[in-house]
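Suppose you are handed a protein chain with no further information: no name, no annotation, nothing but its sequence. What can you learn? This example shows the usual starting point.
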Amino acid sequence: MNTKNKKLVKDYWGYIFIAPFIIIFIIFALYPIANTFFLSFTNANIIHGMPGNIIGFNNFISLFNDPMFIRALQNTWLLWLGNFIPQMILALVLAAMFSSTTFKLKGTGFFKAIYYLPNLLMPVTVAALFQHYLTLHGPINSFLVGTTGLMSEPRNFLQFATDTRFTVMFIQTWMWFGQTAIVLVSGMTSISPSYYESAMVDGASQTRMFFKITLPLLKPVLLFVLVTSLVGGMQMFDIPLLLSDGPLGPPDMSVLTMNMFMRARMNHPANAIGSAAAVSVILFFISSFVALILFRVFRTDEQKQQKKQRRVETNG
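A reasonable first move is to predict its three-dimensional structure. Written in structure tokens, the prediction is:
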């Protein structure tokens, strides 16, 4: 067998080895995505059967004319930003302390494990736990009314929009800040100590080194955290659903998210599958558009230089 035939045999083996992944990806990922895009342009529903008739952009037009959809879109962004900002601040502070050579904290592995533990809990369990805490006869009311006397009478927290929103934001922050901190610690420890040694020789303070060395070199990790958190935030569902009285119920639809709205469309008397698919397509485009902006904003100086050089070579 000559060299060319041997190379051909090797190539075939390579295709055989990657075939299972490609087949599974097409069946369980690519096809559902393509089918969702197709259904978003139809009036498909369970009652009249699938796939329905093509109706163009009618589903999208009706969604943007629906005040409930606009409310869900606003709530989704509010709940995500309300938990991501404090989560990021807390994670950055903890990561800086864990990776700092000045503090030299002991037992950092133990604290990392403790902070990461909430992320291992099922969201349904956490939501049920906080729902119990915030009832009229729950431990929080017992503490505020009976033990400390800070409140004169019990308060059903989950019947108030502000309280429910704050609870969802707090749970999301509490569950995810540990994982974010661990990712940031990994990024910080990969930065060469020589940068900090040179800065210390020049008399730079810890604060100045953090903002001038750590954060700029941490851009790729910050981008990863931002994009993954964005995707997760846009898909927020189980915790706000369980803490509210149904997807469209009180308190005043204050935690109605895009995924909850999608579920409501699916459970609509008309079982509007096409309209629900349109919601998921809008979510896809929002997440992709914002992610592209983040990729552009968080480009490193090296990446900017490489792009500039490629542009010069192309024009030259």
